[in-house]
């Protein structure tokens, strides 16, 4: 099956059969997705049958530990990395903060990192604070008209002092998909490590991080149809080089080194439901029967093709409106279906107007203050953001376009 079976997809999400949500089209997926049934089922089972301290020899505890291990094994395989290179933490923001503290200890005053002004604050603020430790922070700046990052600009910023380059796979307001492999190669050639914020990309198809090449890749499970956990891929070379941030007795376990807090057992176990969902989609659409990474790639491409087909009419409908400025490219194939619009009035009341038409969207800055400022957007007005994912239907797109016609 070459196209996504939207009816099958929506049947895997209880939200679409929930009476209180009927008639409402969900277009704030960039803030968090609906949760798929396999995750909900696993979370419910854990809380009802396994809610004990894991890894002890009695059955409930043994099964709890096995389910936590299953989540790491299966998700790491989809992401194309070793099992112990994937760790779970309370959020991507928290994971990034802990990682920044490790770099603070490892780097020397006078050494440098590169950050962008395209990022959500979670992959910008913690790194910029390293300046307090005498570390030079260099800003790779976006084009103020397009919001794009130019890899050539990065190449001109790199020298022997740079230890780390941080950038997003795509921005939560600009939406343009950055060429991770190309940028990573440029940074590695200069001797720098690479940290990629994948929070705004991963919901549109889990990437093969092993193929992409960065040293760190972060995303949020609650945006990839799962529980509220932050997922962090830490490749072994860098993970063993940085100082341990966890309990001293966990320092020799790669997936524990950067999670100082106790893990959320139930949510980690439930994360295996995301792998269940990938397998279900792959099998239903006639994809590969074996190979987690291959199945993940097949599902990634299914999701992206569906999203691009739905996104282009939305971009076409807004790009030429006199009272609207589309943030980012108008080519659907080059961006995620996260569409930010700068209006000639405050965005939040417009989002409230959309709600009257059954469209759930948001208005504000979405913690993307730096890129919006760089592009000349009035932060007091903010942007209207409509974002969707592969479970969005053509009917909902039509509902959105009709609603936008009314409110704009």
From TrEMBL:
Keyword line: Aminotransferase, Pyridoxal phosphate, Transferase
SUPFAM superfamilies in alphabetical order: PLP-dependent transferases
Taxonomy, superkingdom: Bacteria
InterPro entries: Aminotrans_V_dom (IPR000192), PyrdxlP-dep_Trfase (IPR015424), PyrdxlP-dep_Trfase_major (IPR015421), PyrdxlP-dep_Trfase_small (IPR015422)
Gene3D superfamilies associated with the record: Aspartate Aminotransferase, domain 1, Type I PLP-dependent aspartate aminotransferase-like (Major domain)
Signal peptide: none
Single Gene Ontology MF annotation: transaminase activity
Domain Aminotransferase class V: 26-240, 303-400
UniProt protein name: Aminotransferase class V-fold PLP-dependent enzyme
Source species of the chain: Ruegeria haliotis
């Amino acid at each position: 099956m070459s196209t996504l079976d939207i009816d099958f997809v929506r049947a895997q999400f209880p939200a679409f059969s929930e009476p209180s949500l009927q008639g409402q089209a969900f277009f704030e997926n960039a803030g968090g997705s609906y949760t798929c049934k396999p995750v909900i089922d696993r979370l419910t089972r854990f809380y009802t049958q396994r809610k004990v301290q894991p890894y002890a020899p009695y059955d409930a505890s043994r099964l709890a530990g096995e389910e936590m291990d299953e989540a790491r094994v299966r998700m790491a395989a989809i992401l194309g990395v070793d099992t112990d290179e994937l760790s779970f933490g309370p959020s991507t923001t928290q994971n990034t903060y802990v990682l920044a503290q490790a770099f603070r200890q490892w780097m020397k005053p006078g050494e440098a990192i590169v950050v962008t002004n395209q990022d959500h604050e979670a992959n910008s603020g913690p790194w910029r604070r390293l300046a307090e430790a005498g570390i030079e922070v260099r800003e790779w700046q976006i084009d103020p008209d397009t919001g794009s990052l130019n890899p050539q600009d990065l190449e001109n910023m790199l020298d022997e002092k740079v230890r780390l380059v941080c950038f997003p796979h795509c921005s939560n307001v600009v939406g343009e998909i950055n060429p991770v492999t190309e940028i990573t190669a440029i940074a590695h050639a200069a001797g720098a490590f690479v940290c990629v914020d994948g929070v705004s990309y991963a919901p549109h198809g889990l990437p093969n991080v092993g193929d992409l090449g960065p040293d760190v890749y972060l995303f949020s499970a609650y945006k990839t149809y799962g529980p509220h956990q932050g997922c962090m891929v830490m490749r072994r070379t860098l993970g063993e080089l940085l100082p341990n941030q966890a309990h001293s007795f966990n320092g020799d376990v790669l997936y524990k080194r950067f999670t100082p807090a106790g893990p959320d057992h139930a949510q980690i176990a439930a994360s295996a439901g995301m792998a269940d969902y990938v397998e279900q989609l792959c099998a239903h659409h006639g994809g590969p029967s074996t190979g987690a990474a291959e199945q993940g790639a097949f599902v990634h491409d299914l999701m992206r093709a569906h999203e691009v087909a739905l996104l282009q009419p939305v971009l076409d409908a807004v790009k030429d409106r006199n009272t609207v400025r589309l943030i980012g490219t108008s080519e659907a194939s080059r961006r995620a279906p996260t569409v930010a619009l700068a209006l000639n009035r405050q965005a939040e009341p417009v989002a409230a107007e959309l709600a009257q038409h059954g469209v759930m969207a948001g208005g504000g800055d979405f913690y993307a203050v730096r890129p919006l400022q760089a592009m000349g957007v009035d932060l007091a007005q903010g942007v209207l953001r409509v974002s969707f994912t592969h479970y969005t239907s053509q009917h909902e797109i039509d509902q959105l376009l009709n609603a936008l016609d009314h409110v704009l």
